Amino acid sequence: MSKTILITGCSSGIGKALALEAKQQGYRVFATARKETDLQQLKQMGLETIALEMTNPDSVKQAVVQLQRQAGRLDILVNNAGFGVMGPVLDAGAEGLRQQFEVNVFAVMDLTQACLPLLLQSKGLVVNIGSVSGILTTPFAGVYCASKAALHSLSDALRMELAPLGVRVLTVQPGAIATGFAQRAKLEAEQLLKPDSVWWPMRDGVMLRANASQNQPTSAECFAKRLVRELNKADCSGAVGIGHGAVTLPLLARLLPQKWLDRLLQRKFLLQNP
């Protein structure tokens, strides 16, 4: 019997590439998206689909009910859906933090909780898509970095708490991946940064950071192939970095003295000390 995998955020990028690769490797894939047009496109690619608005509790419940009805099991849950708030932390404020954590953290926990009975039955696997940004904090991405750092910490706790119940947890820490993430991040930054902001004169650095995920990126297809290889391992658990910079950037964060790291990142993103 082929394993059943539920993947969130499949309208584009990592989610879509992973859904197609998993299907090719013999998984029964349920791909989720919010918009009907995206769901229809995924269906045309031969994927089974589920409409899911991650931040809507009713939508989450309905999605799990549909999965139970159509498949009756769940072997792997991939929490991939997310986005990035880009810009100065204090310009984003508490509201920006709430919006970011609502999608990247709280919604992930809600869906995982809703899927837990199925995962317990299958002795399954939870895969949380984090980011190297959860390890290496950069200026003008502090809100996004904080959300991914929180997701990493929660994943570590879940891995230990679920182990006695036979459910494994894998945290994936992508580096630069060729997706539409940067385009949306730039739009977020443009909406957030206003002419009256004290950081307005540094807006070039903000846009530079918003586009950083497209610096020599690994293709989404290569990322998906590597991740599916991980999923195929019987002992798949822990954490894995995939993509350009997924190894070197965490090493920088670990090895460089904080003052050196601050200066390096300030210089890179055009922040000048007075």
Can you offer a commentary on this structure?
With 274 residues, the chain is α/β, with parallel strands linked by helices. It has one domain (4-268): 3-Layer(aba) Sandwich (Rossmann fold). The chain has helices at 13-24, 36-44, 57-70, 89-122, 142-162, 181-192, 203-210, 220-231, 248-255, 258-268, and strands at residues 4-7, 28-33, 48-51, 76-79, 125-129, 168-174, 177-178, 218-219, 238-242. The protein is globular and about 60 Å long. The protein starts with a strand and ends in a 6-residue tail after the last helix.
Q: Which features would summarize this protein structure in a list?
A:
274 residues, alpha/beta, Rossmann fold, 7-stranded parallel beta sheet, two-stranded parallel sheet, globular
Helix/strand layout:
Layout: E1 4-7, H1 13-24, E2 28-33, H2 36-44, E3 48-51, H3 57-70, E4 76-79, H4 89-122, E5 125-129, H5 142-162, E6 168-174, E7 177-178, H6 181-192, H7 203-210, E8 218-219, H8 220-231, E9 238-242, H9 248-255, H10 258-268
**What is the CATH topology?**
Rossmann fold
Number of strands: 9
- Largest pleated sheet: 7 strands, parallel
Helix-residue proportion: 40-55%
Radius of gyration, rounded?
19 Å
> How many distinct folded domains?
1
| Low-confidence residue ranges | none
Q: What is the CATH architecture assignment? A: 3-Layer(aba) Sandwich
Distance between the termini: 64 Å
Q: What would you call the shape?
A: globular
- Strand ordering within the main sheet: 3-2-1-4-5-6-9
Mean pLDDT: 95
Q: What is the CATH superfamily label?
A: NAD(P)-binding Rossmann-like Domain
Residues in β-strands, percent = 5-15%
| Strand and helix order | EHEHEHEHEHEEHHEHEHH
